[in-house]
Amino acid sequence: MTSTLVNGRTRFGDVLRMPCLQPFRDQLLLGPKGSPQNHLYNRLTMDQLGRLTPAWSHAGLAEGLNFAIAQAEAGQMQNLPLYDSPALAEDPTCAEAKLLFLPGKAGAPYVVIAPGGAYINVAIAVEGLPVAARLHKMGYTVFLLQYRCGRNGRLPKPFYDMQASLGYITAHANELGVDPSGYAVMGFSAG
């Protein structure tokens, strides 16, 4: 476990710079990649982020990020692609869709979470990881869906991404260690 635990005074940008989270950095951004609003979010502490909207809490943010750090440091958290080469050749925006895989107990049911993000970004850090941490403690394997949004994610593309995520998990159930017959799907706001 890392000696640098996230708390209410931790700046979001400091979390994003942690070496263990670099493979997941783009999924943890609160605004679209390259957006100027990310500079603002990166300067804010967990306490300040928790006050931006009633749905977010600094304690939940810290819990979710500490969970992600622990999973990343243990080599458990993984990025999984949803689409194969033919799908990517047909629609290159499919590359934006990914699953963040957080394995639980072998053979346990799984949950796919589609965090919200006002249709411009997928807010995994604030709407996905806090819930993932709680479900993981209960033994579930958790998948956080990074669906297409913004210009590249006009409907029905996010629905296709959810469908692709369930298909991917079912096809790879043995290697992912999940029971393909026992799952739940949950989402927040745009998710």
Structure description:
- The chain is 40% helix and 17% strand.
- The protein contains 9 helices and 5 strands.
- The protein has a 5-stranded mixed sheet, sandwiched between helices.
- Helix 5 packs across helix 7 (124-137).
- The longest helix is centred in the middle third of the chain and has 16 residues, at 58-73.
- The radius of gyration is 16 Å and the shape is globular.
- The mean pLDDT is 88.
List the helices and strands and how they pair.
Blueprint: H1 12-16, H2 25-28, H3 37-43, H4 46-50, H5 58-73, E1 78-81, H6 85-90, E2 98-102, E3 108-114, H7 124-137, E4 141-146, H8 157-171, H9 173-176, E5 178-187
Parallel strand pairs: 3-4, 3-5
Antiparallel strand pairs: 1-2, 2-4
Helix pairs in contact: 5-7
The strand line-up of the biggest sheet is 1-2-4-3-5
Strand content: 15-25%
Rg over CA atoms, rounded to whole Å, is 16 Å
Helix content: 25-40%
Number of helices: 9
The best one-word shape is globular
Q: What is the number of strand segments?
A: 5
Poorly predicted spans: none
Mean pLDDT, all residues: 88
Largest sheet: 5 strands, mixed
N-end to C-end Cα span: 31 Å
SS-based structural class?
A: alpha/beta
The secondary-structure element order is: HHHHHEHEEHEHHE
